[in-house]
Amino acid sequence: MRATRRTRLLVTALAGIALFTSMTACSRADGGDQGAPPGQDQGPAAELRLGFFPNVTHAPALIGVHNGFFAKELGSTKLTTQTFNAGPDEINALFGESLDIGFIGSGPAINGFTKSNGEAVRLVAGAVSGGAQLVVRPDITSPQQLVGRTIASPQLGNTQDVALKKWLAGQHLTVGDGPDQVHVTNLDNPKTLDAFRNGEVDGGWLPEPWASRLVLDAGASVLVDEASLWPEGRFPTTVVIVRTKFLQEHPQTVRDFLKGELAAIEWAKANPAEARTAVNEALSQLAGSTLSDPVLERAFAGVTLTPDPLAGQFPQLAEDSVTAGVVTSKADLHGFVNLGPLNEALAANGQPAVDAAGLDTK
């Protein structure tokens, strides 16, 4: 009996040692302090998984990856990337913890925060303002002529989908399949171009470069430039969000990543021609095709690269989601914004801090 008991004690002890070894190995693999509890600073991450879209409206991401700005600032942290067509899919990847940081539209960013009861994600920076238009067939010259027509947006509930439906509501037009309604369909951006050429859709509320592609490559006309709907033409088309747990456990990695974004933006502003080339080369690698120079120039002319997320616009964006019928009640966005890492990176560059518009507190 005693021998059996000693054997059981030995097995238990060995199991405990194995468990401890496994836990410390996982901690080291994550690049953090051994034994640091979840949700606390664990130092630099071993890997950062980044999501973004192959769009001009995600230029800081494309340039940051293609020109190595992120990799340089991240040092030993491995950068892996994944591309998406629209925000809802990227939000699902963040929820599933297969992504850590994402460049994303403002609408899905808000929805990700609210659907997780304010827990899953935080807004940590801006990326691009502007760069979205409603482009249509040339014979459509007024909102009322959209009745009975089919208009595309990239995905149900994405940033352009919300903007389109909110604008239609403001024009006293309803969305549906009836003859006196506007038909809204959700298509991947490349499919929208093909569908427009084939006569299957009559236009789309699209981000760049797809708005420019429909105009210059397929003969569309601009019915609405979204910039005309916002004060001073500024609205957050693309922002940067991070999984809350990743931000808590690896704040230095997030700050270093944002230093890379700042470097990409500053380089692009100082070298506009080279920035367009870098974006085109990145799009070629990701999508297998390049954009013509006129499309690139038109697309870049409509966007502003900025680390400021324009947080003051987000309450209106949350209200727009209600108007568009995407959600039933306006989201409370307090606690959504955490600009601490960004403002630290800006201060290190001698640049002024950006404002969280009161959304950094509960």
From TrEMBL:
<keyword id="KW-0732">Signal</keyword>
<dbReference type="GO" id="GO:0042597">
    <property type="term" value="C:periplasmic space"/>
</dbReference>
<comment type="similarity">
    <text>Belongs to the bacterial solute-binding protein SsuA/TauA family.</text>
</comment>
<keyword id="KW-0997">Cell inner membrane</keyword>
<keyword id="KW-0813">Transport</keyword>
<dbReference type="GO" id="GO:0042626">
    <property type="term" value="F:ATPase-coupled transmembrane transporter activity"/>
</dbReference>
<protein>
    <submittedName>
        <fullName>NitT/TauT family transport system substrate-binding protein</fullName>
    </submittedName>
</protein>
<dbReference type="InterPro" id="IPR010067">
    <property type="entry name" value="ABC_SsuA_sub-bd"/>
</dbReference>
<keyword id="KW-1003">Cell membrane</keyword>
<dbReference type="InterPro" id="IPR044527">
    <property type="entry name" value="NrtA/CpmA_ABC-bd_dom"/>
</dbReference>
<dbReference type="GO" id="GO:0005886">
    <property type="term" value="C:plasma membrane"/>
</dbReference>
<feature type="signal peptide">
    <location>
        <begin position="1"/>
        <end position="25"/>
    </location>
</feature>
<keyword id="KW-0472">Membrane</keyword>
<dbReference type="Pfam" id="PF13379">
    <property type="entry name" value="NMT1_2"/>
</dbReference>
